[in-house]
């Protein structure tokens, strides 16, 4: 379909900017294909959440983000190019140098976790890999993605936070430290083991409620990666798989729902992110 036909048929609002840009908001009942004379910018898109098309001939850019279709029409070619550059800066954030840093952090995490395994029997490194992947899909800063790869090394291995700071910088170390339980909570406590688990989780919930947005997103990615695995294991093992954990299903549900509330609390909340929305769906599915 031609772009003018799309606009004529589905446009719900039009906004004219003083810099020669007209913005059309379209209510399209179903996903669209590339309009005529538009190119699909796959390197800036991330289906199914984000699709971007551009037309040099029309000096137009069309974005479909979370189902909302917007068309930007530019009078000046220069402004059209500026918007394209801005989209590239926003969505193509991980350059070759960034990937080199991520590769180094990944190699370090592999060495730190060695051949440790998860309760499912898979290599533990699969978990931080999944966390980092979730953060990449959120276009998180490089330092946060690196922290995703390294987030468990202080808590679960002999690596200390000073080593993380020395190798990857204070920002990465601060991110890792923020999602690492204090040492006094990691040490076995006297009394009931379940009480120790509850105490640790209450501390985590309290920290995340007042945490910055980046910390909330890192923790959310961690919980999402975990719950994806739980759902997979449940489909294989059935309800008996809950016996592997330090707390019963009811307390696990309390923890995940409390974390959802913490992620959605305050001005730094992440309730609009895909990771949060998927986590919420997974919690409903699991419990």
TrEMBL record:
Domain of life: Archaea
Lineage: Archaea, Methanobacteriati, Methanobacteriota, Stenosarchaea group, Methanomicrobia
Swiss-Prot/TrEMBL keywords: Hydrolase
Native organism: Methanolobus tindarius DSM 2278
Protein's name in the database: Guanosine polyphosphate synthetase/pyrophosphohydrolase
Domain HD/PDEase: 120-236
Pfam families listed in its UniProt record: HD_4
Family annotation (InterPro entries): HD/PDEase_dom (IPR003607), MESH1 (IPR052194)
MF annotations from Gene Ontology: guanosine-3',5'-bis(diphosphate) 3'-diphosphatase activity
């Amino acid at each position: 379909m031609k772009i003018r036909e799309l606009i004529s048929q589905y446009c719900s609002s039009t906004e004219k900017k003083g810099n020669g840009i007209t913005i059309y908001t379209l209510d399209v009942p179903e996903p669209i294909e590339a309009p005529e004379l538009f190119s699909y910018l796959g390197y800036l898109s991330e289906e199914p959440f984000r699709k971007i098309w551009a037309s040099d001939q029309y000096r137009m850019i069309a974005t479909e983000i979370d189902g909302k279709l917007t068309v930007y029409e530019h009078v000046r070619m220069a402004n059209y190019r500026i918007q394209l550059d801005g989209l590239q800066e926003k969505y193509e954030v991980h350059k070759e140098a960034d990937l080199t840093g991520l590769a180094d952090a990944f190699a370090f995490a592999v060495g730190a976790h060695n051949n440790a395994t998860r309760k499912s029997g898979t290599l533990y490194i699969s978990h931080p890999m999944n966390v980092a992947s979730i953060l990449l899909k959120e276009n998180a800063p490089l330092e946060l993605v690196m922290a995703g790869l390294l987030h468990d090394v202080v808590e679960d291995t002999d690596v200390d936070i000073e080593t993380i700071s020395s190798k990857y910088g204070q920002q990465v170390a601060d991110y890792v430290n923020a999602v690492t339980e204090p040492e006094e909570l990691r040490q076995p406590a006297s009394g009931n083991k379940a009480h120790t688990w509850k105490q640790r989780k209450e501390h985590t919930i309290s920290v995340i409620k007042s945490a910055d947005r980046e910390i909330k997103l890192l923790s959310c990615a961690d919980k999402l990666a975990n719950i994806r695995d739980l759902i997979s294991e449940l489909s294989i093992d059935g309800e008996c798989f809950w016996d592997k954990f330090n707390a019963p299903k009811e307390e696990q549900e309390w923890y995940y729902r409390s974390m959802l509330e913490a992620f959605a609390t305050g001005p730094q909340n992440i309730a609009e992110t895909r990771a949060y929305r998927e986590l919420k769906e997974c919690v409903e599915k699991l419990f």
